[in-house]
Amino acid sequence: MRNLFRRFRRKSRPRAATGRHRPPAPVRPVGASNPGRHYRSSAYRPLCAGRIRDRQFPLVRRGLDPGEVTAFLHRVADDLAALHAELDQIRNENARIKQSLRDWQSRFAPRVHR
Q1: Which residue in 5, 23, 66, 84 is a FRET match for 11, CA 20 to 30 A apart?
Q2: What radius of gyration, in Å, describes the C-alpha atoms of the chain?
Q3: Residue ranges per domain, the chain?
Q4: Quick one: where's region Disordered (predicted)?
């Protein structure tokens, strides 16, 4: 019986000898060289509308209604596609405003004569 209980008992991890709490090591963002984007690893592919629509789920005996799952995935994909389109529009507008500001600054900045 003792052997049976030993099989199901959790294995305890060895503790640090100092007994002090060590702060976790600082984590460097992987995608920091990708300005304006989320910090993701290079292996992670961002979610897009096509990937949501094409997602397949395994069939189970008492699973969810496939029609409802498909309808929900299409709804999420449409929302995501609209967000991506709006984000592209905002990025273009942001670039246009920045360029206009640079032009204005170069036109009206005080000239330095040497």
Answers
A1: 23
A2: 27
A3: 49-57+64-108
A4: 1-42
